[in-house]
Design goal:
The protein is built from ten helices and 16 strands. The protein has 313 residues and is of the alpha/beta class. It folds into two domains: 3-128 and 280-310, Alpha-Beta Complex (Quinone Oxidoreductase, Chain A, domain 1), CATH 3.90.180.10; 131-256, NAD(P)-binding Rossmann-like Domain (Rossmann fold), CATH 3.40.50.720.
């Protein structure tokens, strides 16, 4: 039986539970593809799953391979799978209910993979799927953002926030991006109409009412965001809703949002990247064997840009 190197967890805990080991290489089933992983991005979901905080929601079986942002090359196709062809470069947001991409090979449903942007290497491509799909779906599906509407995007310097600023501008919306002082210039460079510095005072005192708020932070940021919504406005949160009753009393919606894998949407995003209409930001790149260090860095909040595991040279 063919084997591969993979980083798995056998128990929940800190970065020390990440173990590099040799395990059997998976085989694609009907409608699936086997991807030779070149790069896997490290996202907050990864360390939340590792810690055990998602065990009730996702109900994973251990041992488990983490990492659901992948870029690589199609190695083989399962029964009945016609595309993408073997040898194709693809990227995908993998199904979080099964093994991820901290490994030399991973399997996924062929329908959720998309052609990798030809303008990007695998390292950069791996940073895009989860964050870009989250921003896309949160804004346009949950938030119903359209041209001419006003949106406030929290955490605008982060992966999801950065994509959200760019998508919203391209849709024709008026965009305010909120970030810490050290990130103001980078948010402005993404095209935000107004950039709000969290360090300069309460954001709710410095913005006119908006139609949509994208919240990736939660807590008091979420509570205070209700104050900037117009009647009938929508607050979309990727981190859960704790203001449902307050929102109802104010005549606004508060929606908890969960991203889904979508190959068609990812293909459209790939085209936007190749057209030069989206900027991506890579931070630290580490080898697969240093997954523990990657988690420590990403979870610390000190990373500037996305942390990526390079699996294949």
């Amino acid at each position: 039986m063919a084997t591969m190197k993979a980083v798995r967890i056998h128990e929940y805990g800190g970065p020390e539970v990440l173990v590099l080991e040799d395990i059997p290489r998976p085989e694609p089933g009907e409608g699936e593809i086997l991807i030779q992983v070149h790069a896997a991005a490290v996202n907050p979901l990864d360390w939340k799953v590792r810690s055990g905080s998602q065990r009730e929601r996702l109900k994973h079986k251990l041992p488990l391979i983490l990492g659901w942002d992948v870029s690589g090359v199609v190695e083989s196709l399962g029964t009945g799978t016609k595309s993408p062809e073997a040898g194709s470069e693809v990227f995908a947001r993998l199904d979080t209910g099964r093994d991820g991409a901290y490994a030399e090979f991973t399997v996924c449903d062929a329908r959720i993979a998309a052609k990798k942007p030809s303008s990007l290497d695998h390292i950069h491509a791996a940073t895009a799927p989860l964050a870009s799909l989250t921003a896309w779906q949160a804004l346009f599906e949950a938030g119903r953002l359209a041209a001419g509407k006003r949106v406030l995007i929290h955490g605008a310097a982060g992966s999801v926030g950065g994509f959200a600023v760019q998508f919203a501008k391209q849709k024709g919306a008026w965009v305010a991006g909120a970030a810490k002082g050290m990130d103001i210039d980078s948010v402005s460079a993404l095209g935000a109409d107004e950039v709000i510095d969290y360090d300069a005072g309460p954001f709710e005192d410095r913005i006119s009412p908006v139609d949509v708020v994208l919240d990736v932070i939660g807590g008091q940021i979420q509570e205070r965001s209700l104050k900037v919504l117009r009647s009938g406005g929508i607050l979309v949160s990727t981190v859960g809703i704790n203001v449902a009753s307050e929102a109802k009393a104010l005549g606004v919606e508060a929606k908890e949002f969960f991203v889904r894998s979508d190959g068609d949407q990812l293909s459209e995003i790939s085209r936007l990247i190749d057209a030069g209409r989206l900027k991506l930001r890579v931070g630290t790149v580490l080898p697969l064997a240093k997954a523990r260090e990657a988690h420590e860095l990403a979870e610390s909040g000190r990373a500037r840009g996305k942390v990526v595991l390079k699996v294949k040279d």
